[in-house]
Structure formats: structure tokens, C-alpha cells
Design goal:
This protein has a single domain, classed as 3-Layer(aba) Sandwich (Rossmann fold), CATH 3.40.50.450. The protein is built from 7 helices and 7 strands; from the N terminus they run E-H-E-H-E-H-H-E-H-E-H-E-E-H. It has helices at residues 19-36, 52-62, 75-78, 85-97, 112-125, 146-155, 196-204; strands spanning 3-10, 41-45, 66-70, 100-102, 129-134, 173-178, 191-194. The longest helix is centred in the first third of the chain and has 18 residues, at 19-36. It is globular.
Length: 213
């Protein structure tokens, strides 16, 4: 049986009023994948950070899609970044439903930020489709964040050579679901596949200055 791997990169905080719409779009995305790739074994890779990573993972599990959890660091160290006991419990509950929880070989890791960046690189580079829950804001990129991983998905990963011992997926696709963060005024909800050309045109038109509340 052929396998299709979907990776996720997503914001940790999502505007409350947008969560229902984003959830419906993620559900529609997975259902269309199951139709388009009927007969494939579909797997989701999610590091299970708070926010969008977990939203996507829960939906995938509801649809009987296998969950794989690449960790940015040792699990006891990782959970120290979660904000509440409820969040920690949710993380362990999801890990308990995963088919695999693992720390990929990411080469030398300099610090925590680098660890998050490299697990984002790993997730994108080893997935056939990268699902991005992104606010489409080009002006707030942080290393390892959603905007950073999506940009490098189109422009090239500086970390790709470090991961040369890992089987990288060629001809990767990228599916973007517009996902505003709490401080932003929601724009029209959009979703769909983006090509490198689409991304470059988006940059050219300077859509980086979305309004904030």
C-alpha cells in the first residue's frame, strides 16, 4: 500500500472567532485527501505544539488518520514549554493515540529556537503535503515559526543539508488555510494549494501589513 504523509505547521494561538471556520476547512481538506488518495495509507506528522498543531491532529484522529509525532527535543523538556497542566495532559493524551512518537535526527541543535526550527524543517521536508495554518502575514517571521517554515518550503531550507541522511520527499505540495491570530482582524477565509509562483506573487503584492486589533 502506498503512503501519503501530511505535515503540519501552524500558529500556537488562533483568533477565537476563527476556530470554527478553520476547523471546518481542515476537516474538508482531510476528507478531500481521503477521496483523492483512496487506497493510500494516510499519515499526519504533527509536533503537537499548542494551538493549530493539536487542532489538526485531533481532526486527523477522528478521521482514522495515523498520527506521527516528531519531537523537537526530549519529551520531558518539551512539555516545560506548555502553558498549563491541561495543555500538558492534552499533549500526553494525543501522544497516547499516536502510532509513533520520536525524536528525528536533526544534526547539531544550538538552542531551543533551533530545535523548533529543525523539527519544522524535518516535518516539511519529509511530508508529501505541508498543511499550513497561517495568517499570511509576511512581516512577523520568527525562526521556526509558521511563516518561516512556509517561506523556506517555497524558497529552500537552509537546514536541508543537515538533514541529508533523512529520506526527503521530492515535489512537495503546500496547502494553506488562512488562520488569523488573536490580535488580527479576520480577513476573508481562504484555503487551497499554493505553488512557488503563488507565493512569489503574494510577496510581490505586499500583503504583509494586515490590520490588527
Amino acid at each position: 500500500m502506498k503512503t501519503l504523509i501530511i505535515g503540519v505547521t501552524a500558529h500556537r494561538t488562533i483568533k477565537e472567532s476563527a476556530i470554527c471556520g478553520v476547523t471546518q476547512q481542515v476537516q474538508s481538506f482531510f476528507k478531500s485527501i481521503q477521496q483523492d488518495y483512496f487506497g493510500y495509507k494516510i499519515k499526519l506528522q504533527s509536533p503537537l505544539a499548542e494551538g493549530g498543531d493539536r487542532l489538526v491532529a485531533k481532526i486527523a484522529l477522528e478521521l482514522d488518520i495515523d498520527l506521527m509525532v516528531p519531537l523537537p527535543m526530549e519529551i520531558d523538556d518539551y512539555v516545560s514549554d506548555f502553558t498549563t497542566e491541561t495543555s500538558i495532559k492534552e499533549f500526553y493524551d494525543l501522544c497516547g493515540q499516536a502510532k509513533k512518537v520520536f525524536a528525528p535526527n536533526m544534526g547539531e541543535v544550538i538552542d531551543r529556537t533551533d530545535a523548533y526550527y529543525k523539527v519544522g524543517c524535518y516535518t516539511a521536508l519529509t511530508s508529501h503535503i505541508l498543511l499550513g495554518l497561517w495568517d499570511q502575514h509576511l512581516g512577523l517571521e520568527k525562526k521556526g515559526g509558521t511563516a518561516n517554515i512556509i517561506r523556506e518550503q517555497f524558497e529552500g531550507f537552509s537546514n536541508e543539508r543537515v538533514l541529508n541522511e533523512i529520506e526527503l520527499v521530492p515535489n512537495r505540495k503546500t496547502y494553506i488555510i488562512y488562520t488569523p491570530r488573536p490580535q488580527q482582524i479576520s480577513q476573508e477565509a481562504t484555503d487551497g494549494y499554493w505553488s512557488k509562483h503563488d507565493y512569489n506573487e503574494y510577496k510581490k503584492n505586499d500583503h504583509s501589513l494586515f490590520s490588527t486589533e
